[in-house]
Write a structure and sequence with these properties.
- By secondary structure, this protein is of the alpha+beta class.
- The protein has one domain.
- The chain contains two helices and four strands; from the N terminus they run ββαββα.
- The protein has a four-stranded antiparallel β-sheet with strand order 2-1-3-4, covered by helices on one side.
- The protein is globular, with a radius of gyration of 16 Å.
Length: 82
């Protein structure tokens, strides 16, 4: 197993998490699980030592554009439009 670092962007804050992975693909899979575990997570960068591996964006960013499918979206009570 190899040590990787996930840098998770969450509401303007950066959080570093260490993960142990077999390879880059495993690191991406684990980082994606971490990223999508909370709606407020926006993106994640994966690092293996000093080597940048990749970056992923949250699935929740797609939902925020849809009117009623994002849980934090509020409707204007007068117009029915967010």
């Amino acid at each position: 197993m190899q040590s990787y670092i996930c840098l998770v962007m969450n509401g303007g804050r950066l959080r570093a998490l260490g993960i142990e992975c077999a390879d880059d693909a495993d690191a991406l899979e684990q980082a994606t699980t971490i990223l999508n575990s909370q709606p407020s997570n926006q993106s994640v960068e994966i690092w293996h030592g000093g080597r940048f591996v990749t970056q992923a964006e949250s699935n929740y960013s797609d939902l925020s554009a849809e009117s009623n499918s994002y849980p934090n979206k509020r409707l204007n009570s007068n117009s029915g439009v967010p």
